[in-house]
Amino acid sequence: MTSPSPAVATAAAVLSTVLGGIAVVITRDLASTMAPAAIAGWRYGIALAAIVPIAVVLGRWRVSNASLWPIIALGVAFYGIYPYLFAAGLAKTTAARGALLLATMPLMTALIGSLTGVERITRHRLIGVVIAVFGVAVALADKVETERTSLEGDLLMLAAAIVGAGCQVALKRPLEAHGTMPVTLWTMVGGVAVLEAFGAFSAGFPSLDASGWTALLFLALVSGALGLFLWAWAIRHTSPTRAAVCVTVNPIVALLLASPILGEPITPLIVAGTVLVGVGIVIAARA
């Protein structure tokens, strides 16, 4: 079977990140009725329940014994350590500063990928990453406040970017060896296990109305199962850096959604930043 082009793989990563940006808005809404750990636990628990029968029917759930526990450990890092650092960082800095610091993940991914020999940093790829990160900085320029921030918060967000970047790079070889479905399945097993350890299901069955369940099922099945599968598929069929540069779409989506949902204006800086992020992703995809 012919491998998909880098452009197709990058499009899958962009779509996954767009779904992730929508998930941020929905999660904020659900946070008024559910604890954050419970939202994450039920989101990924339902997603895992949806993926298991599909993987079994397709016969795409097996991985080698030697790879099983490392893949589950990646799930623990991606769904446990990374979200913790992200949440802890946002508690001590502003959302805009946090988003900007997290947008450095593509640069971290390129560096880690190069140092570990997983990928080679090309000129086009580096230029694309820098333009995309600069685009996020432009879009957030009038929102990055210095109040209510601390060096600790900034360092926690940078640590989250490093852990996230490391996971992108570490996933590449297992995905190539075992395929998208098995790796997605077993990383989610690790993720749900660590969320359970953090007490994600201690509050019992969620008490939600119809709109709440609609939001939670969207988080689980669309942003969760589909979004994570698309992300893993993109990493498998392109370089970790090409996929990671699409992370810069996340804060852009949040800013654009803030207009119809929160009534915040779409400023010229947001428009300019969005264009720059798009240009950066296109350049990185061509490398």
Cα-to-Cα separation, first versus last residue: 22 Å
Mean pLDDT metric: 85
Shape label: globular
Low-confidence stretches: none
Question: What characterizes the major β-sheet?
Answer: none
* Helix-strand sequence: HHHHHHHHHHHH
Judged by helices, strands and strand pairing, the structural class is: mainly alpha
**How many individual β-strands?**
0
| Number of contiguous helices | 12
Q: Into which percent range does the helicity of residues fall?
A: over 70%
Structure description:
It is a single chain. The radius of gyration is 18 Å and the shape is globular. The protein has 287 residues and is mostly helical. Helix 2 (36-58) runs antiparallel to helix 8 (180-197). The protein contains 12 helices and no strands. It has one domain (6-286).
Describe this structure in a few short sentences.
The chain has 287 residues and is an all-alpha fold.
Task: Jot down its keywords.
globular, mainly alpha, 287 residues
Question: What layout of secondary structure does this protein have?
Answer:
Layout: H1 6-30, H2 36-58, H3 65-90, H4 95-102, H5 105-116, H6 123-139, H7 151-178, H8 180-197, H9 210-237, H10 240-244, H11 249-262, H12 268-286
Helix pairs in contact: 1-9, 1-11, 2-8, 2-9, 3-7, 3-8, 4-7, 5-7, 6-12, 7-8, 7-9, 8-9, 11-12
